[in-house]
């Protein structure tokens, strides 16, 4: 349940995704990103921190990358498999049932329309 | 645009993306502070190798590196492409590392590209060669890349640490430009395909992986088909290893992939920031379950591509003609975010990024930079 909470907070913050990615914002949460064009190390470290909280622990990350973050490994694949969900769990399986053709088609159709 | 002035960048992050965008936008770059404080400062061997590869496929490009390798000056040349090229990718990163930028660069060449790449075909860090065949190529086709001439032939496989794999990549050139996409319907997963491989180990390993992965999927979907590809003799490279690449196909023609490979770790890598890799290999059953879980995780996110392909997706959107592209992805990966920033820096394109709270996805819109295949015009 913790994870879902985290997800929800992250979602709430997504309203300013634009600023998160591109900076130039005066909002408190993104001030660190604001100057990301002036390519200093510390700003980068801060937004890196900010972007990964869901995937991996904040602290661990900043420790790992502190001072070395402009030299982050160039890797498109997320190789962090530590927080994998237990997909053997029946409930979890049911939760994504509608993403498969064996699920509820009307729900999926609605999902597609909602966002158009 | 800027012809004489160099764009200044720092650090080794997004090395390939930077050089790729530099080449496509004809922007010379200077990259400084490349791992200045490491015990092995400067460029890594795979990065040098990538520069050599750029020299092979372009004409008149200039690469200058300082003594310690911490500073790089790159002036891009004209993308030539060409047949019967050969490149040894080395052993520090897998062939997937080189393929990712290469498939984009190849599209904008003067002639179709055909290149033989040697090295590691499957590892856990980069997308495997199987994933390129099953997923990445389908993505390119969405953007109007002709399917004839787009091919990746796996001649032999190679795992870390010794490699020994060989693939032949062909990339067609695009006649004029890519075509913009509206790609927001991720559809429902209708089937799952995949391939396992094993080199210098018993083919029994593959059956275990397959069985474990199927066990998870079959409760959701009957249509699961995972092939095996056991290599032996000279086709199996020089190191033992096994792995699996899976792809979920949806009703709307999206391909969501996940892959991994297991083998003994590289020795030289240990000074890098890296998880302590245990020399005890993950059992095949666990590998199968793990990668099936990764795939379901990707499906759950609900984008039209998986997190690995987000960066490429945005890049292709940005390279489109001046039409609006609209795509849907799951949670933005750190790599994709960096890609978005570099696209802004090099091509001056900003995406409009809107979260879609009902489905917990993100919708991105942009107007392409209208990159034409200029190299072709010269001919």
UniProtKB/TrEMBL annotation, chain B:
GO BP: any one term: endonucleolytic cleavage of tricistronic rRNA transcript (SSU-rRNA, 5.8S rRNA, LSU-rRNA)
Annotated ranges, domain RNA 3'-terminal phosphate cyclase insert: 185-299
Domain spans labelled RNA 3'-terminal phosphate cyclase: 9-353
InterPro entries hit by this protein: RNA3'-term_phos_cycl_insert, RNA3'_phos_cyclase_dom, RNA3'_phos_cyclase_dom_sf, RNA3'_term_phos_cyc, RNA3'_term_phos_cyc_type_2, RNA3'_term_phos_cycl-like_CS, RNA3'P_cycl/enolpyr_Trfase_a/b, RPTC_insert
GO cellular component: nucleolus
SUPFAM superfamilies: EPT/RTPC-like
Highest taxon listed in the record's lineage: Eukaryota
Subcellular location: Nucleus, Nucleolus
UniProt keyword terms in alphabetical order: Nucleus, Ribosome biogenesis
Alphabetized GO MF terms: RNA endonuclease activity
Family statement: Belongs to the RNA 3'-terminal cyclase family. Type 2 subfamily.
Stated name of the protein: Probable RNA 3'-terminal phosphate cyclase-like protein
Natural source organism: Nelumbo nucifera (Sacred lotus)
Gene name of the record: LOC104609053
């Amino acid at each position: 349940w913790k994870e879902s909470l985290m997800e929800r907070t992250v979602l709430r913050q997504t309203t300013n995704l634009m600023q998160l990615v591109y900076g130039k914002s005066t909002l408190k949460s993104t001030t660190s990103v604001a100057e990301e064009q002036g390519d200093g190390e510390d700003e980068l470290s801060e937004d890196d921190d900010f972007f990964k909280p869901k995937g991996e622990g904040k602290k661990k990350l900043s420790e790992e990358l502190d001072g070395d973050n402009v030299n982050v490994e160039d890797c498109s694949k997320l190789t962090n498999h530590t927080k994998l969900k237990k997909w053997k769990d029946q409930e979890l399986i049911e939760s994504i049932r509608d993403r498969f053709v064996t699920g509820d088609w009307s729900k999926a159709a609605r999902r597609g329309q909602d966002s158009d | 645009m800027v012809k004489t002035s160099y764009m200044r960048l720092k650090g080794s992050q997004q090395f390939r993306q930077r050089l790729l965008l530099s080449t496509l936008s004809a922007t010379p770059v200077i990259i400084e502070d490349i791992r200045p404080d490491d015990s092995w400062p400067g460029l890594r061997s795979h990065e040098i190798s990538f520069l050599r590869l750029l020299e092979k496929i372009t004409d008149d490009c200039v690469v200058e590196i300082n003594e310690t390798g911490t500073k790089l000056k790159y002036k891009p040349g004209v993308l030539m492409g060409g047949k019967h090229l050969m490149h040894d990718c080395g052993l520090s990163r897998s062939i997937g590392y080189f393929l990712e930028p290469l498939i984009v660069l190849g599209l904008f060449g003067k002639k179709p590209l055909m290149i033989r790449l040697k090295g590691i075909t499957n590892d856990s860090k980069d997308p495997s060669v199987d994933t390129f065949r099953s997923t990445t190529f389908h993505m390119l086709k969405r953007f109007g890349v002709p399917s004839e001439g787009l091919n990746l032939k796996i001649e032999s496989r190679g795992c870390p640490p010794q490699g020994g794999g060989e693939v032949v990549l062909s990339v067609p050139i695009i006649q004029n430009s890519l075509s913009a996409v509206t790609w927001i319907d991720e559809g429902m997963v209708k089937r799952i395909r995949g391939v396992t491989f094993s080199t210098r180990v018993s083919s029994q390993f593959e059956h275990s992986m397959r069985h474990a992965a199927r066990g998870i999927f079959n409760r959701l979907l009957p249509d699961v088909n995972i092939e095996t590809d056991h290599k032996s003799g000279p086709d199996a490279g020089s190191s033992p290893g096994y792995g699996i690449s899976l792809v979920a196909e949806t009703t709307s023609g999206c391909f969501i992939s996940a892959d991994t490979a297991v083998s003994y770790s590289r020795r030289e890598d240990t000074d890098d920031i890296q998880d302590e890799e245990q020399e005890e290999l993950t059992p095949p059953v666990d590998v199968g379950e793990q990668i099936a879980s990764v795939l379901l995780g990707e499906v759950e996110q609900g984008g039209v591509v998986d997190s690995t392909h987000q960066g490429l997706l945005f890049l292709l959107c940005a390279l489109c003609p001046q039409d609006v592209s609209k795509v849907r992805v799951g949670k933005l990966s750190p790599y994709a975010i960096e890609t978005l920033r570099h696209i802004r820096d090099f091509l001056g394109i900003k995406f409009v990024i809107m979260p879609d709270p009902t489905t917990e996805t993100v919708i991105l819109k942009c107007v392409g930079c209208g990159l034409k295949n200029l190299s072709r015009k010269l001919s």
